[in-house]
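Quick start: read one record
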Amino acid sequence: MEKIISNVIKVEGSLKIPPSKSHAQRVLACALISQETTLIKNFGNSDDELAVFQLIKDAGARVLQNEDEIKIQGIDFKNEGMPSLNINESGLATRMMTPILANFRSTLELTGEGSILNRPMDQFDELMTSLGADFQSNQGKLPFQMKGPLIPKSIQIDGSLSSQFVTGLILGYIASPLLRNETIEVVNPTSIPYIELTLDVLRNFGVDLKFENNKIQFSGPYNLKETEISIEGDWSSASFFLVAASILGDITIHGLNIDSKQADRKILEALKDFGAEILLDNGIRIVKNQSKAFEFDATHCPDLFPPLTVLASFAQGESKIKGVSRLIYKESNRAATIQSELTKLGAKIQIVGNEMIINGIDEVYPAMINPHGDHRIAMAASIMALSSTSGSVVIKNSEVVKKSFPDFFECLEQLNCKIL
């Protein structure tokens, strides 16, 4: 499916941003390991959320769903699990659910689809075995075969590749009835806000853990309490529209928690440095003002690279974004894909070591964009395309946005944008 995007003079209006898939997936995981009932409101419809929702049902959770809310009764890992579960294409869900599912006492296969089958997960091979699980991978990749129980112990874990392994281990420990006074120490932690988001979700379920001095101290076993929780609006999805407003107009976003633990809330710092006007009144309103070059460290929020590259392309001068090493194992090699596809539109991008250097441009060119299966590349190119004055931009395989933001193009149309 293709989308054709034409130039727009100004983007303006208001949007209610969709729920956060990062928040939702963590809530679903906690609901699965809770022996009590969890009531979830404001649940989204992205592919990643639906994949985890289907997985917890297949794993044995009892689910009652209507239009406005979902009730979930968790499982007892002493019972036999399903022989095979599919995680679809979610990296977070794979890394988060693997240690949880390793608590089953029966053999289970976990598989997936698409690019997730090629993403490195070899950290699990040694980790799961050291924790007592019978575990085999496909040369460090999915599918996995595993059998518990998981036996928690005090360990060190390398957090340099992804904080998602840390989140999985935390929740895997919480799910274990064998947990006692153990410690997880994270060496070279990255995306620390996502670890904090996991702990914030756990507090809703009555488990109060802290990430201090790169360590998490447990005092288990834990029994998660009955809870009601509403999924926050997604700062990752909102970032594209916040950037669009900063370079082209005036947009108010509703549904975001300004005090959220989501890592991508940090985009407000970049917008402020760029010179956008930020107003917090009945939502978050962003108004175009100045266009200054900026420097930004995205090491702990790498999903901001695509929208921030677009923002930097409209700045006056040279901008720098740090943290390129975090982009290799996404839906695509995201650093290379940002450079190849946004350059088609006229972007001036260099990658030097761990930095992306972007120089401002005067014109956006018409082009055909191949997002390489990466939802964030499709969205970033679409925002940049709004400034193409000499012809339309075609986004191939535009349906990839369903992974995180199925209504992305419909939201663009609400803001005075023409999409064919």
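Residues 3-18+233-413 form a domain with the UDP-n-acetylglucosamine1-carboxyvinyl-transferase; Chain fold (CATH 3.65.10.10).
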